[in-house]
Amino acid sequence: MQFSDVTYKVVMKGMTSTQEKDILNGITGCVNPGEVLALMGPSGSGKTTLLNLLGGRLNQSNNRGGSVTYNDQPYSKSLKSSRIGFVTQDDVLFPHLTVRETLTYAALLRLPRSLTREEKTKRAIDVIQELGLERCQDTIIGGSFVRGVSGGERKRVSIGNEIIINPSLLFLDEPTSGLDSTTALRIVQMLQEIAEAGKTVVTTIHQPSSRLFHKFDKLVLLGKGSLLYFGKASEVMAYFSSIGCNPLLAMNPAEFLLDLANGNINDVSVPSELEDKVHVGSGEADTRNGKPTPAIVYEYLVEAYETRVAKREKKKLLAPIPLDEEVKLKVSSPKRLWGATWWEQYNILFCRGIKERRHDYFSWLRITQVVSTAAILGLLWWQSDTSSPKGLQDQAGLLFFIAVFWGFFPVFTAIFTFPQERAVLSKERSADMYRLSAYFMARTTSDLPLDLILPVLFLLVVYFMAGLKMGAAPFFLTMITVFLCIVAAQGLGLAIGASLMDLKKATTLASVTVMTFMLAGGFFVNRIPVFISWIRYMSFNYHTYKLLLKVQYEHRMPVVGGTRIDSGLEEVCALVAMVFGYRILAYISLRMMKLQSGA
Ligand SMILES: Nc1ncnc2c1ncn2[C@@H]1O[C@H](COP(=O)(O)OP(=O)(O)OP(=O)(O)O)[C@@H](O)[C@H]1O
């Protein structure tokens, strides 16, 4: 991989003006198969931005300049899905899946279609062995609220998720941050072994120990977005010595380099040129206790690199490299290569969804909540009598409550669906693991079984305690009506969650909407002004309430919300339209969601 004169800027919009900020200024370098390239620099120097650019994650941005080529070919979609692995700084994994399940699903989704299911599963087991994860393969990953594997093991699982496709290029963002030095060393050793197998590894690293530092083949040292050094890691000290910068104490080379890149020259001898700059003409403002300021040191380092090394490196990069034609072909193919067919993707994601949320399925808390509400309702409306108009009015209140309860509950569970999975979705879509439509269908259908079990329990308790109309037909019609209401309400929750992708905002909007639909539901107010009558038609509570009345009383209570209940077909159609309409809206919102990669 070669990168030449890579630049990146961001446009920052202020209150009064728009400013451009240069993040990277002309970074040039290359890394070959078999090598580990480390990107080092102080915090904010642009390491992550450079890594994202090299890994094709900021590829569609207009703010980038220069060129990045892989085997002499520009970036392509097939390269992204099958030849590049990208390990982000945060481990974005499902907390309730075990290590083996996580890697198996990654293998099933990402490995090429030419492999059988057994071969893909075997690859996951091989990776577990390669990464030394056998002991914790049946432990769940864990997260903030559930205890799972250790930080180092989690990082290895994240790396495993990427090396499973046997990528030619592996990018890692701070793979050792937060780990103790022995675990960090183990991870870097593993990266070295991956490189030795003929792969190219590029990693950002914050402050490696000296043992770690010596494991890198090449080094890019950045300071405020400019290149201070590119070359062999083993030659970096000799280079800085050649420009007159030497450590005065025995210290870790990484520490020395970071100090220099920060412009901190305590315990560092500086060249006479720099000393002269302080004494001749630079004036008070540029000096601190007779020492050059960080800005002067930084300028000197950038200039030294530009004049002594940069031109030579650029020349080297311009020299043509003989290329294997087969590799060239693979890399330049513009087609996106999916590891599984749409239907396979749907099945894998459906099973993964069920496994990830299996703990939710038998949540006694939810079951208790529903059954106790049902029991309270049953007691309050115990064997209610509908022979008098007053009794009828009373029971209609119960039916309205059922329509509101099953309109309210699913909205508030569904709004969490997409915002909670945003990070995983972004990461997996950036790696082109599956089609969005397959994910959407799997995610929205894998919750249905639970969502339909709870209302059955609820109705079994309420229906007979409250003495609603006896008979199989009214009971099952009531159940179907409640199901329709739940699926429609879920659609609304999914659409709100997907369009806002922020739980606070989504909860606020959902409460206002659900309250409006409830008020317009035909129980509290019969006639509403014509210009807001559309609210009533969008309210699933209204249609559900009308259908429940129809099932229970047929023609004894024909007018609700100012309209007659005829065949009930109109209400069924309205609910079905909502089931699909809100889901289509949710899908469009997800499609429009900007993923990190611009995928
Ligand atoms: N979209 C953006 N808008 C504004 N500034 C940005 C944007 N992206 C990056 N930057 C700025 O660019 C600089 C480099 O960011 P980057 O994350 O690449 O640094 P880094 O070297 O990886 O830092 P760290 O080691 O702290 O993670 C920072 O000053 C950051 O604030």
List descriptors.
599 residues, alpha/beta, Rossmann fold, 2 domains, 3-stranded antiparallel beta sheet, 24 helices, 15 strands, 54% helix, binds adenosine-5'-triphosphate, membrane
Summarize the structure.
InterPro entries: AAA+_ATPase, ABC2_TM, ABC_transporter-like_ATP-bd, ABC_transporter-like_CS, ABCG_dom, ABCG_transporters, P-loop_NTPase. With 599 residues, this protein is an alpha/beta fold.
Summed up, the helix count is 24
The first-to-last residue Cα distance is: 21 Å
* Adjacency order of strands in the biggest sheet: 5-6-7-3-8-9
The major β-sheet equals:
6 strands, mixed
Class based on secondary structure composition and strand pairing: alpha/beta
In total, how many domains does the architecture comprise?
2
